[in-house]
Amino acid sequence: MVVVVTAANVTEREGAKLILKSLTGSCKKIRRIWVDGGYHGKAFMQWIADYFRIIREVVLHPQGTSGFKLLPRRWVVERTFAWLYRYRRLSKDYEVCTDSSKAFVHLAMINLMLNRLDARKA
Predict the structure, then answer these.
(1) Domain range annotation of the chain
(2) Among the residues of the chain, which ranges form H helices?
(3) Which end of the chain is more exposed for a tag (fewer CB within 10 A), N or C?
């Protein structure tokens, strides 16, 4: 788990650069990232192309639409957070050490995957 603390005046693209720079060792496994419109821009796209071999896809609302519209791939993060927040230790930030938080996220995901495997056997 990577914890990057930035000031509120740091743009989304600059924050993403900080996170991606801290993931340099584990970025080999990352092949594609989906981002919202805040990460749109030629300079950011060129930076990713220069430093990483990651495909970046911007998920935008279709032009001419208003109100709620289910967008592809945007629900994945929200769904995963909803699964994790069902665990009491992860519903609030109780942990002092980030390594403890990381361990509980790993345990929760292991539990979710084991439950999923068990459901397939039934």
Answers:
(1) 1-55, 74-122
(2) 12-22, 42-51, 75-85, 88-91, 98-121
(3) C
